[in-house]
Amino acid sequence: MTNRIMMFAVALVLVLTPITAKAADALDYYKNWADIKYGTQSSEQKQAALEKLAVNVEALLAKDAKDTDAKIVLATIKSTHASLIGGLSALPLVKKARDLFEEAIKQDEKAMDGQAHAILGALYYGVPGWPIAFGDDDKAERHLKKALAIAPESIDAHFFWGEYMLDHNKYEQASEYLNKAIALKPRSSHDAYKAADAGRIAEAKAKLKEVDVKMKEKSKKSGLND
Predict the structure, then answer these.
(1) Residues 6+ apart with CB under 8 A from 29
(2) What's the CA gap between 106 and 219, in Å, rounded?
(3) Is residue 176 within 8 Å of residue 137, measured between CB atoms?
(4) Which residues make Cβ contacts (< 8 Å) with residue 72, sequence separation at least 6?
(5) Domains in the chain and their CATH numbers?
(6) What value does the CA radius of gyration of the chain take, rounded to a whole number of Å?
(7) Prediction pTM value
(8) Which candidate, 29, 35, 83, 41, places its Cα nearest to that of 199?
(9) What is the reported pLDDT for 221?
(10) pLDDT per position as a tens digit, 175-204
(11) I want to staple 170 with a disulfide (CB 3.0 to 4.6 A). Which of 136, 161, 165, 178 is the partner?
């Protein structure tokens, strides 16, 4: 009888104890980042949302300082926030993003399909060089090529290499890699990846239009000089 009473008590506790929701992890916050970045809010609204999101990811790192995915997601959030601010005011965020990406690479460079290399490469070609900031084309190329080597099917890696080519007036190569980014299938292993890749494909399509304009301008100038 005593055993039955104990079993009933345990069963009652299990029934009455609420089932807590799964604690959010880095990829859940990555999905939030994608929703913010590719959403329709104003720049100011996005910045405020990214600030709050960064606090949540920082809480993950406070619990586990070696959470590589969390470092990559936090760095991605900060780099996006910096792009919205623009100018010299964005440099502290950009530098923090760089440091986080570099830490993540030391821990596991293949995490999140080499994303740390891909976006770090973009930071190196996107910011001014010394003495203003840390821009460096050699480092940009090294990281971007590493991203492509780690994940040959990475939409991010192809997009950023295509953008890098565009920035250096290599329009044919830019068109090639942006088209590859558009043709690649979004990752399906997590909703966060699907949302991020879909957004990046949309960016690639917009960037490809810039390339097409530049190529037409180049062709026109070449025709005039003949």
Answers:
(1) 53, 56, 57, 60, 70, 73, 77
(2) 44
(3) no
(4) 26, 100, 101, 104, 111, 112, 115, 116
(5) 23-215 (1.25.40.920)
(6) 22
(7) 0.87
(8) 35
(9) 83
(10) 999 999 999 999 988 999 999 999 999 999
(11) 165
